[in-house]
Design goal:
The protein is mostly helical. The chain contains 13 helices and 2 strands, in the order αααααααααααααββ.
Length: about 325
Amino acid sequence: METSTGKRQGSLKLYIVMAFFIIYAFWGFSYLAVRYAVETIPPLHLIGIRNFTAGLVLFSIARTRFREKLTPEHWFSAVKIGSLLFVFCHMGVVTASKVLPSGLVALVVTTIPVWMVLIDWAMRYSERPGWRVILGIILGTAGMAFLIGPGNLVGIAGGSLFSVVFLILATVSWSFGSIYSKKAKLPDSVILSSAMQMMTGGAVSLLILTISGHLWDLDLTGISNKSIFAFFFLMIFASIIAYTVYAWLLRKTAASKVATYTYVNAVIALSAGWLAGDGEMNSRIIFSAVMIIAGVVIILSSNKNNKNGKKVI
């Protein structure tokens, strides 16, 4: 019995490692994909169409395998989570990016691990974060600030205070939606649950575009092949695969560990941009990457218990 349990634990840890690799890599490369996609696709259309289509495809696949009965409560939870993650957060980042320096936007987004740890604790899903988690967050955030550079953070006075506040609320929205999804009334199937969240979030985004009168502003003939390729990468790898894995990870391990993707994604995004000839690589970036990775390692090596006293992998 112990051998069987040990094998299951070993398999679970392997799956968790693979899951971290997926969200680190796919969401890291998605930064470059988003840049290519918005060259000829309006940002809000990209958000709505990408998430609704990804959710619809995944939902169709999931329903052929999982015959779980869906209740109004399941759909209501999906709408709430989908709106928090794929509407308020994404719209906040897009809106702020039009006014604020990109470096400042990137730095604010990396506060997600802080919000997730605090919200996780405040909602009493886990115990107070230990010193390793706190140290890891400090190292990761400091590494991000150094990575972006002081020169790129200047300009907050030139942007509106509303945009800064909106961006902060966007990160809180993603963090709260992620933590809330851990205990919300959702289908047992992570695949089905993820599909419903993406589909409803995308639908709400398209509804907003319809109400605002901008739904038909998309010029299909003007979309480049590069943007089309980027769109399908985002839909398949960043949404269908990576988000489903992200939702699964939130059920299997501590939120503070899952949130390390914000740090690693930044390093991967810079590396991808450099390899694509769309950025540089210097000693400051390398030193920052070392700080960020050190913070991530410290967080991942922490032993965190849930409120029942059970250790979380």
